Prior knowledge:
This protein is 73% helix and 4% strand. The protein is built from 3 helices and 2 strands. The chain has 108 residues and is mostly helical. The N and C termini lie far apart (74 Å). It has one domain (20-107). The chain has helices at residues 21-39, 41-64, 72-107; strands spanning 18-19, 69-70. Strands 1-2 form a two-stranded parallel sheet.
Amino acid sequence: MHPGLVAPGYPLPYGARQAHPMAVASLVCGILSYPVGCCCQFFSLPLAIVAIVLGSLGLARIRAQPEQYTGTGLCIAGIVVAALGLLLVTSFLVLGFGTSLIERLGKR
């Protein structure tokens, strides 16, 4: 076994740090907001917001316990990806509403 790995079922060695679960969840929700945003904007908006909230809370908890948790990069990546997902969904909504509004006004 590799010296840095721990066998399944055994605890981490003393002093070993792990990624904070909120950091991982933030990145996962941020990434999921993209494909969901292309198909159904209704679910993408909450996913992006949840990713931003989890990333912010994860950053605060990692900074409060730096000896126990890592994952600052995951939190930042989750926040950035979610913000880009929000921009994507917002642009889809604005373009969709704008196009339908122009079509309705053009028919009059």
